[in-house]
Amino acid sequence: MEEIEKNDYNLNISRYISTAKPEPVIDLNDVNEKLTEIEKKATKSLNEHNEYLEN
């Protein structure tokens, strides 16, 4: 009752229960490793493609 009184008797649910979802934790080192690997594969593919164009 004290909490309700402190909130001026506002019974809006959002005052008492958070409906926000927590943000996912992102491992930046893992993401960086994956991006680096993708970049290496893309560079390799680009170089192979350019070799075909030269022939």
Tell me what you see in this structure.
This protein is mainly alpha-helical and 55 residues long. The chain has a domain at 22-55. Helices cover 58% and strands 0% of the residues. The chain contains 2 helices and no strands. The chain has helices spanning 2-6, 28-54.
The gross shape turns out to be: rod-shaped
Assign the structural class, choosing from mainly alpha, mainly beta, alpha/beta, alpha+beta, or little secondary structure. Answer: mainly alpha
Distance between the termini: 82 Å
| Sheet with the most strands, sense and barrel status | none
Question: Percent range for helical residues?
Answer: 55-70%
Proportion of beta-strand residues:
under 5%
Q: Would you tell me the overall average pLDDT?
A: 92
Seen as an oligomer or otherwise, the chain set is single chain
**Helical stretch count?**
2
Radius of gyration: 27 Å
Task: Name the helix and strand elements from N-terminus to C-terminus, one letter apiece.
Answer: HH
Please tally the β strands and state the result. Answer: 0
- Detail the poorly predicted runs: none
